[in-house]
Write a structure and sequence with these properties.
- The protein is α+β, with helices and mostly antiparallel strands.
- About 65% of the residues lie in helices and about 10% in strands.
- The protein contains 13 helices and 4 strands.
- Strands 2-3-1-4 form a 4-stranded antiparallel beta sheet.
- Strand 2 and strand 3 form a beta hairpin.
Length: about 425
């Protein structure tokens, strides 16, 4: 059997990707280079084990900085909070603005309720009240009722939680923002009032509730007056328009000496109609005379004369409808009167609608009621809830620890860059 070419010393086949001259190492075949490397590694000396960890100067510096920046401030804060911080009592109150108005009756004139302008705006009133509680105006009003500086200065040994401002109103507003917390959600307002005495906190909460009610009443009065003022102005304009229309009709009647030109025209038409009937009868009679009497009968002349007179009278009556001799035609007079009549009727209809609108607005203003509805009356605290000492210490400790960690990282990053 023939031996492989590699064992016979013939050419060796190369694997794909194998460099030329690189020998293929098969299992069981020794590599002299690898054996030389292993022997060289075994001849190198073994390093001794690492020495035990020891504290260095930087470690002492870290510990000292932690004590100075974290431990000492926490201890000082704990001493102040538990020894000097005065107890504070909280009074809670919650309220919302309610608006109730009875449904207006069906308007027989059609759509006059939209002219009144009386709408419910309890949501906007709540927004106004929310801003009012945080305003300087309310602080000034409550301070006029209660001496807020005296109430919040009942802890003289507590400069942090006590009132530390002066006599200016701005300092009192800042203290108000610290002691009065407001929460607004879905049209409901919740307040928390702090004071060093439980009765003082309740008194301040009652004062806020009373002043809020006064503000809502003022807004309600303004809304009523606006609705009535608009309806009253429209009614006055309608009255003036009706007065002018009636005055023009009166002047027209005095100028032409006619109470109702339309009725006069109808009377003139009746006269012409009657004359035309008479003319027809006379023409019939004249025809009968000519048929039965002699041509020289005097009755024929009388009948012809009567017919001519009737025709002249009809022509005279018809000329009254037109303009002759510079006089104004009766048809023009009737046209002017009809225009004035239409204006007067429109003014009367406008006055009726404006009067109904005014009565509807007044009825709505009387029925509508917008008021402050407290769902939580100002509470009287039994125990002091504030300051929350444990919570404050945890917050201080966490804040100082984060500052210490950040400061240490910044210090060592700057030092390692040198």
């Amino acid at each position: 059997m023939n031996r492989p070419l590699a064992q016979q010393g013939g050419p060796v086949a190369h694997r794909p990707g194998q460099a030329a001259g690189q020998q293929v190492i098969r299992p069981g075949q020794h590599n002299p280079q690898m054996q030389a490397r292993i022997q060289a590694a075994m001849q190198q000396p073994v390093l001794p084990p690492a020495s035990p960890a020891r504290l260095h100067r930087r470690h002492y510096g870290m510990a000292i900085s932690f004590v100075l920046m974290v431990i000492v401030p926490i201890l000082l804060s704990a001493m102040y909070i538990y020894t000097r911080a005065s107890d504070q009592y909280a009074s809670y109150v919650g309220f919302s603005v309610r608006s109730e108005s009875a449904a207006s009756p069906t308007d027989v004139l059609g759509g006059l309720g939209s002219l009144v302008g009386v709408t419910s705006s309890s949501t906007s009133d709540t927004d106004i009240l929310f801003k009012f509680i945080q305003s300087r105006d309310l602080v000034e009003r409550v301070d006029a009722r209660i001496d807020l500086r005296d109430v919040w200065s009942k802890a003289p040994n507590d400069p942090i939680f006590g009132f530390r401002g002066g006599e200016s109103l701005e300092d009192l507003v800042k203290e108000w923002e610290r002691k009065v917390r407001i929460h607004y959600d879905s049209g409901m307002i919740d307040l928390r009032v702090l004071a060093f005495d439980a009765s003082d906190a309740q008194t301040i909460a009652n004062a806020i509730l009373d002043e809020g009610g006064i503000l809502i009443n003022q807004l309600n009065d303004i809304a009523r007056e606006d609705a009535l003022r608009y309806a009253r102005d429209e009614l006055e304009r309608a009255q003036d328009r009706l007065r002018e229309a009636r005055q023009e009709v009166t002047e027209f009647r005095n100028r032409y000496q006619l109470v109702d030109p339309v009725a006069d025209v109808q009377g003139q038409i009746g006269v012409v109609t009657s004359l035309q009937q008479q003319l027809a009868e006379q023409l019939v009679g004249l025809g009968l005379l000519r048929a039965n009497a002699q041509p020289d009968d005097p009755r024929i002349d009388q009948a012809e004369l009567r017919i001519q007179v009737i025709r002249d009278q009809i022509e005279a009556e018809r000329q009254k409808f037109g303009s002759t001799g510079g006089e104004e035609a009766l048809s023009d007079v009737v046209g002017q009167f009809e225009i004035l009549t239409v204006d007067r009727q429109f003014a009367e209809a406008s006055y009726t609608a404006a009067l109904a609108s005014f009565e509807t607005a007044r009825a709505e203003a009387v029925r509508q009621s917008r008021y402050l509805a407290p769902y939580i009356r100002p509470t009287l605290a039994q125990d002091a809830e504030f300051p929350e000492r444990a919570k404050l210490l945890l917050m201080i400790a966490g804040f100082l620890t984060v500052l210490w960690v950040i400061g240490s990282l910044i210090f060592y990053s700057l030092r390692d860059r040198r």
